[in-house]
Each structure stands twice: as C-alpha cells, then as structure tokens.
Design brief:
With about 350 residues, the protein is mainly α. It is built from 16 helices and 6 strands. The radius of gyration is 21 Å and the shape is globular.
Amino acid sequence: MSATLKKVFKRWETFLVAFLILEFVVFGSANPKFLRPASIMTAVVNYISVCIIALFVTMVMITGGIDIQVSSIIGLTSIIEGVLWSDAGVNIWVAVICAVIAAAICGALSGFFVAYCGVQPMVVTLGGSFLYSGLALLISGLSATPAYQGISGFPAKVGKTFVDFRFLGKGDIAGVPTQIVIYVLLILLCAWVLHRTKYGERLFLIGVNQQAAEYSGINTRAVIMSTYILSAVSAAIAGTLLTSNVNSAKYNLGGGYTLAIITAVVLGGTLNTGGKGSILGTVLASLIICILRYGLPLCFGVSTQNLDLPVGIILVLVVLGREIAGQHMLANLLKRRS
C-alpha cells in the first residue's frame, strides 16, 4: 500500500465518508424510497440551518471556544425581519440587513466577554442563549400578530414560481434548491478562509497555544472575537433562509438546534479543546446527521420526537472515544491485565 493511501485511510474524513455510504446502503435496503434524489435534497434543505451554522462554529471551536447561543440568534433574526417588514413597513431586504447587523452585534458582545474579559465561552454563550431568546420574545410582543401564530405572508410568489424573499427558501437554480446552492458557496468560502488564508492559520495557532500566538504578534483577542461574530452572522443567514422556507417569522424558530450543531462540529473532527478541525469533516458530519434524521423515521418508523437521542449518543461516543485515545486509557488498561 502506498504512502498516499495510508494517509487517506488514517484521515478521520475517510471514516466519515464510509459511515455516510453505510447509511445509504442500510436505509436504501430498508426502503427504496429513501434513495429518491428529490427526497434527499428536501431532507438536506430541512436541515440546512444546522449545516450552515456548523461551518462557522467550527472556527469558534478551533480557537478553543464554543458557541451555544446560535439557536437563539436564529429566532431573534427571524422575528426582527418579521416585525420590521409586517409592522414597521420596512422593505424586506432592508429588514434582512438590519437582522444580520443585530446578529453581528450579539456575536460581538459575546465575543468581547470571551476574548477581552476572559469569561468562559460556555458561560457567556449560555447566558447569551437566554438573553437573545428573551429579546426575541420581547420584540415579538411589538407585533400585532400573536407570538404563537408567527408572522407570515412574506413576498412573493408569481404563479407557481417563488420569487423575491421566498426565492431564498423555496426557489431553485437549475433544478437545485437555492438553499443548497447557498450552502455550497458557503462551504467553498469557509474552506478557503480556514485552510488557505493567514486568518485560518491564526485560528489554529490560537487553538494550539494562545500565549504563543500572542507572542508571535497575533492579536488573539480580536481574532477570537471575530469568530463569534461570524458564527452569529451565520445564524442570521440560517434564520433568514428558514423564515423564507416556512413563510413564518417566530421568536423561537430554530430552537433545539444546538445539540445537532455541536455534534456535527465534534463528529467532523474538530477538537473541543481547539487546535484541530476541518470544513470537510464538518460538512460530512452534518450530512451524516441529516441522513440519519431523514432515514430513521422513513425506514424504521422512529418517531421524530426521539431523533435527538441518536444524535446525543453519537456526541457522547465521539467525545468519550477521543478522551480514551488521547489519554491512551485502553492501552494502559490492557497492559495492566497482561
């Protein structure tokens, strides 16, 4: 076996590809309907918010941080767009820009506390999760539409074709859903930024040793803060696409995505301690979780309410496996017994 093939088989992404293929084999054998391309694309579209945000949370976690407030920012973005458009009469695209700016401010606030005040990322983003959820609920109270109902009727649809704002969530480009096209473009952008730019190099250096990165002339605080801003902006993008897709702006839209996002990043090979990760790994892991959530109900009748269980199990097993491998616990245990 050549050295190149050995490197390929040692890569974590190779395992993820094999796992993804296994999913298609198992689910496809159980139910041929699973293999319909249109159904698979619909499944990806329904899960695209998690896929998009996971790309940018990867950058946060490479620096050694974590961001669990993004689900709340999805809802905050959605309700800002809805209230500005429906109740304030603002143009929908202006409302989208305002929502993205608001999300960036939220990310900057959390990033400031993490980078410049030294507060633990888990504590900051957990607090941010409650803060931004409460803010979203408060803003929803400014609308004439009841909060539980959601603001709907976004523009526009001409005949059977979605145009304008709804084109983002329901349209297609050459037969490919617009959301998937946007996702692919974001994958290429993130892969270039993380693996081909000095900014990406700095993220890895900070994750490996922040003090050493500081000594080498990197403004580590500004870089760390920027990752939280990018993560929040990605949540705003996801919230916009989700609002356009379901034609409803709600303060709690996207709630419950946190577990899936963190699982996708960790399963993709990003260390929770920082210093290692890849966009390809995150993409593959996101698709694995997406296909899992699509295939289990369709092929094995698993209730949608129980789909967080396998995702949670995957997260625990991956983190536990890394701890065992990192500390050589299994090898030490075998030596003691021999």
